[in-house]
Design a protein that fits this description.
Strands 1-2-4-3 form a 4-stranded mixed β-sheet, with helices on one face. A two-stranded antiparallel sheet has the order 5-6. It is about 25% helix and about 30% strand. It is built from 3 helices and 6 strands.
Length: about 130
């Protein structure tokens, strides 16, 4: 866990001050441990995905900023059907590109949208 990490580099607008506490969770265990720590310490938690549609004040953010950076894509193809299981920290446009490359239809019209898979379908696309 870091203290005082600048959030500017983690947003698409490249603006913003530091996080009081910051962790980039790359797996489920780190994610759960960070949440447990924040709860035990009484620290408010804010979740950060790909940083699009986010403006951070110059004075920064109090509490824990938890970046969900879990990675991994599993493609299961059965006959003419394919299912992608994607971790929340994957870059959304990379997921769309992979689906296109694999001949999977359904999300190809959602290319070019910034953000991570955990947030983009709900927040940027509204495709829940």
């Amino acid at each position: 866990m870091e203290q005082g990490r600048s959030l500017a580099a983690l947003t698409t607008l490249k603006l913003g001050g530091p996080a009081q506490y910051f962790i980039s969770a790359t797996d489920r265990t780190q994610l759960l441990e960070a949440l447990a720590w924040a709860r035990a310490e009484g620290v408010e938690t804010r979740v950060l995905g790909g940083g699009s549609n986010l403006l951070v004040a110059d004075e920064g953010v109090s509490g824990l900023v938890l970046q969900v950076a879990t990675r991994g894509i599993v493609l299961a193809v059965e006959g003419a059907h394919g299912v992608l299981t994607v971790q929340a920290g994957e870059v959304w446009d990379d997921v769309v590109s992979l689906a296109i490359e694999q001949g999977l239809a359904g999300i190809e019209c959602l290319t070019g949208i910034p953000g991570s898979t955990g947030a983009t379908p709900i927040q940027n696309v509204g495709a829940y």
